[in-house]
Amino acid sequence: MRNPTLVIFALLLTLVLTGAKHTERNGGVAAGDIWCVAKNNADDTALQSAIDWACGPGGADCRPIQLGGSCYDPGDIQSHASYAFNDYFIRNGGAESACDFSGTAALTSLNPGHGSCQFPSSSSLKSGNVSSAVYGSTVGLGPSADLNSSPSICLDYIWFFMGTVYVILANLL
């Protein structure tokens, strides 16, 4: 039988490399729901400027952060910016490049929603549509596939499994 340390090393290396490829495809954030939010250290003036752009020329639906809206909180510019940024991000297909706002925004896997103020996430992009329950109407976006479970990610796990079986069999024979 071959060196068991070598077998363990090969298995761990395969696992690490497969995990690294999976993380790269998701912009450095693990698969699952993703939101675009305002950075905690962003300047209020910069945030207000970014909100104005997102809610104006950017085309984000900012009704929920206006007076009477489910996310309206006049004293919390961070929350308002996060909602506007996230709406713009989702409406632009969840592309990482749609979450910058002059360096005042970042992607997160932590749900920024609270109480009746719910933020749509990247999983809202399934089948190319944003849920009508979130926006009141269906808006077509991006590819017509679930962005969080693409076939190439599934293939990574199949290749990992096949590689693991190969290494085990090669060391047993």
Automatic annotation (TrEMBL):
Gene3D superfamilies: 1.20.58.1040. This is PLASMODESMATA CALLOSE-BINDING PROTEIN 5 isoform X2. GO terms for cellular component: plasma membrane; plasmodesma; side of membrane. It is found in: Cell membrane. It comes from the Eukaryota. It comes from Carex littledalei. It is a lipid-anchor; GPI-anchor. Residues 34-119 form the X8 domain. The keyword Lipoprotein applies. Residues 1-20 form the signal peptide. Keywords: Cell membrane, Disulfide bond, Glycoprotein, GPI-anchor, Lipoprotein, Membrane, Signal. The keyword Lipoprotein applies. Its main location: membrane.
